[in-house]
Amino acid sequence: MASSLPTKLIQSLSDLHPKPSHIHFQYGTAGFRTLGSTLDSVLFRVGIIAALRSKKLDGRTIGVMVTASHNPEPDNGVKLVDPRGEMLEAAWEGHATTISNASTSSDLIEALESLVQTAKIDLSKPANVVYARDTRPSGPGLVSALEDGFKAMSATSRNAGVATTPILHYLVKCINTKGTKYSYGDDSEEGYYRKLSTSYKKLVAGKAVQPPLIVDCANGVGALAAEQLNEYLGDALQLVLENTSITTPGALNNACGADYVKVSQKLPPSLSSVLKPGQRACSLDGDADRLIYYYLDDRGVFHMLDGDKIAALVAAFIVELVKVAGLEDQIKVGVVQTAYANGASTRYLQERLPVKCVPTGVKHLHHAAERYNVGVYFEANGHGTVLFSQPTLDKLTEYQPSTPAQSRAVEHLVSLTELINQTVGDALSDMLLVEVVLAHKSYSGEEWNSLYVDLPNRLAKVSVPNRNAFRTEDAERRLVSPPGLQTKIDELINRYQGGRSFVRPSGTEDVVRVYAEAALRTQADELAMRVAGLVYDEAGGEAASRPKEFL
Ligand code: NG1
Ligand code: ZN
Hints:
Blueprint: H1 7-14, E1 32-35, H2 40-56, E2 61-66, E3 75-81, H3 90-100, H4 105-118, E4 128-133, H5 139-152, E5 156-162, H6 165-177, H7 189-204, E6 213-216, H8 222-233, E7 239-242, H9 257-264, E8 280-284, E9 291-296, E10 302-305, H10 307-324, E11 333-337, H11 343-350, E12 355-357, H12 362-369, E13 374-378, E14 384-388, H13 390-398, H14 404-419, H15 427-441, H16 445-449, E15 457-462, E16 471-473, E17 478-481, H17 485-493, E18 500-505, E19 512-517, H18 521-539
Parallel strand pairs: 2-4, 4-5, 6-7, 6-8, 11-12, 11-13
Antiparallel strand pairs: 1-3, 2-3, 8-9, 9-10, 13-14, 15-19, 16-17, 18-19
Helix pairs in contact: 1-4, 2-3, 2-5, 3-4, 7-8, 7-14, 7-15, 10-14, 17-18
The protein binds 2-acetamido-2-deoxy-1-O-phosphono-alpha-D-galactopyranose and zinc ion.
């Protein structure tokens, strides 16, 4: 095996994927994400980086996912997945950014050589990668650039085809744990569906079958996965799939999907003739890692059950099972949220459990959740999961229950560890989790919703010339820069009953986000609008982008 970089091969393949001179790329909270048509060079280079990351980790398999999630169809993106199915280690985000911005093929080789030096990569190690893409039209072209990157490094690659983001994470973890005592499952899509459907069936055995569930697939890859899952579930649960047009140009995430529902706080128009009062429905996002539930009440009024409501439902259920199992003193459940969590959810959870607030971005939530025995983390936007620590998993297997009730509760907990995707938020796994809890509690959407009453809230975004001028502290709840702006925001907040608002630069879009909540709907909207106005005035945005209404 070569112990130096194959520079000739890299050079010649890199010449086929030149970097656009005017663009600066950044590996952000969800990898690289921008217009798909500009990403060719990035994908080629990510192929090389994935191979180097694998070599650095002794040939363990690295995942590469090509997706732009809930973003519009012309966008695309790519992110790397570490061997345990987790997000890429933070230090490598910087390496990826530097390498993606090298202007020429020779600059690229220089940047790669420098990474090999600083990260002390043994180039004689093997490189293994597994990759997948969502249904975006720009996907196939970008994947072929990625494959050139693998070729440049002679990496062994496995194409997982068109798959959801959580399935790719699942595959990475399965491949890397295969044949060990920590084996996570069969490393195939079938293995994934089997694992989810089997544990679901165990968990709802003996319960009344839930009425059919309407699933808005955002016209994305979730449609394919949900269709498969539906077959594996058989009679245990019927999924009624909507928005499954994965080949209709422009349909992806358009007026449908989890982000549309969460941000507009509305039913996707395509479901208005489908959803009947009292029926449950949920929306996935474009790569099926976010999930939002909702229902119409008797008067036809729309009610949303977002990531915070899912966290509350699930955390309470797990706490109860742990208690019934007699493991209350040994297994502690905690919750992790971000500043976007509804204030009412935070209050509800804090009265019952330890709750931690961390900066936006899955890696922050995931790492904080790992510190609990059972860590429930959800972003308000519907991305989240539940992590069971290894000692907790061991405890559950070794535990000797002393009553049939204890024994049933432990079995349920073990099945939950199999149902819940331990690598990343997973809309399909989370959907089954919610269905399990609803079946156990005999809850309708309305009963679930009544756990607490959401404070009215609004999320807005402002386009500014330089979002990096906005810097935050205290888990992004306060601005430290631009100087003086936070004081002005505080003054505004104080004028609203139950007011809370904060401003932070987005990690995935070139905008600054504004969140506001207050006791009354009109006040939440007004507060968001006025804070957005302050941001705009401070940042000197273009007149056309001064917020007049919510985007
Ligand atoms: P940014 O663009 O940094 O706000 C958004 C979401 C995050 C996370 C990432 C990754 C909101 C307010 N922000 O990040 O929670 O999901 O996308 O997809 O929902
Ligand atoms: Zn997503």
